[in-house]
Amino acid sequence: MEIKDFVDEVIACKNKTITDEVFLLIQNNRNFMQKYLALVEEKGLGVVNRHIGQAVWRKYNLTPDSGSINKEPQSTLISSYQEFE
Prior knowledge:
alpha+beta
């Protein structure tokens, strides 16, 4: 196995769960959670979560894995999330 192949495999695995991990970070950080809840109250849950998901996609220049929606996130802040290649 080549090093590049190994690294690509590891990164692809990480990309599959990155959105869930961002929401877990928010959920497990008191300061982030307070800010998140204030935004949800002001803007609405769907708007805030959609914006966060899109920001992750843009920030890391990820490509949506067509049709791959994970409906079993670890974070309780979301009910599903898009997996990326």
